Amino acid sequence: MSNNHFIIDKITGTFADDLLAAGFMAVLDNLYRRQVGIANMTQVDCGHYYQIMADAPLDLEKVQREAEFFIGARFLRTEGNKDKLPTGLPEAYFVDYKEKRDERNAFFDALNTLEKTVSKAYWRGDEEVLAYLPTPPDRHYDIYRMMNSPTTLIGYTRLVNQWVQVGESGRTGDVCYLLCQMFSSDADGRYQPNDVAAAVAAWKDIAKTEQWPLNDTITTASQVLNPAQGKGVNRPKPDGVSPTNLSGFWLLEWLKLVGFYQIGLTAVLRDSSDRKTYVPAAGRMTIRTREQIDIRFRNLTRANESATRADILTVLQYLRAFIRVTREAQEQPDMPQLRFSRHRSVRPADFIHGFHVAFYKNLGNAAAVMNMAFLNLPGWVQIHNADEAQQFLDILDEHAGIVRQFAENKGDELDLLGQYRDFVVADNLDPFFEFNTAYSSWLISAGEKPGFPPRKFSTHNLRRLLVSVQHDLSDIVESPGFINIARAIRESTVRAQYRKNQKNDKRYTVRYGLGRDLVRKAYHREEFVAALSEFLLTYNAENAQVLERYPKDKYPQYKYRWDVQTGDIKDILSLIDKYSNPPDLIAKLLVAYGYASDYQAKSEEEAE
Asked: Model's pTM, two decimal places?
């Protein structure tokens, strides 16, 4: 009997389902390597279950006879449990926590002694800089750190020990056969529910033969792997209020543990002992593609972040990793699903829907899940060619730099992070405009402080982003009148402030709060047109006054502003009538462009 279609039921609706699928795929990968060599497998989200399809059949009877033991997860040796771990096993079965911690500390001590350019390159995710550094930290160190708690480590060790016991007794083939049977589709490759009860019964037969304790069949479901299954009153018909732990078949819990090492990302939050765990939810992804993206992704997520920034940067950095692998895949025949063309785009959200997120509050000897969420991958990233791939990388790099400016211990910046997170996990521009309006005020406020000027969006990347989300916006943002009025806003705000602070040029008034004022009036056509007209009148009048006071022939060192023409005003009024009534869309676009940097025009501050 053979099969190449397998089914994983979604039971919890949390990342436990994804860990289970990833763990079983790791088992299948080992079984295929034994039988036919490397086989590519595709995981497909089918709604209430995942389907795993391989490009070659797996002989299940041969699995039962010939499957060899493999290490899915290793024992975690600590100072507190090293005397309680099994003896006589190969050292490859163990990972020493203190050794990994010391190795990590030595790496960062060495990194801190090097030039800042090397350190910055490492934190940016530069892979080439690793050649000049000591052995980098184990990629699974944060998992070891998470598991090394008094309550979690006991259950972790029990799961690893039971699997090693299976291998040492020579029953690996029987147990792998049991798993393949439980997750197999029907004879025609169609859905059939996972028969967990039959698998439990088969395991008990094995346990009886080997004289293993039957009460080990069911084990505690750890919240590390099952975020929704905490301690509490969980019985369907409780007759008391005694809190208990939820339990599950130990092999399913072991598969989740293996899957955690495959796809889980967990880290302690910056300036905190709390942590967040991120697990990607597959849409349609091959195991090889997932592995390639995962390597790049982890290189880009080396730094610990605060809670909201961690959410945002997880999405942005995964998109960056995905696009980089997509570019490389155009030259690799073994990754056809990432091939793009004029008639076929590659959209990351089709491959990975997003990330399950769990927030764990540190309670001393244990951690409790305080919040669960899901971060969508935005659907507006679609790649048709190499140029578009580079454009999106530029956009994502720019946005990551802007997000890193904000500190979560400041109320206004925390609000900005929340607004930006709402945008990056959505497929519409409303949250972005809300963010950008607030950001315009923050830019001017931050620009008054000493130090390097705050980062701004660039107009050409802004256009690429807006048009990729909403294609009809190109007619607006490419209109000469729109461009010239947005430039007038820029000259009256961020440019005027730059001249005043960096060059002591105070000829032009800085219009504080201009962006918010325009958006506030934007829900009534007459009010917005009046407010915009008043600004443009003041703008042109100030240009004339400056030119009169500082003639060009006497002050050749100065740069002067262009006037807004009547044709520009006609253009913007025409756009309002055609695309936006009320004119809030036009107002928000003007503010977005007005507070951005015009790289194409080589603006004065960028030249500096």
From this structure: 0.91
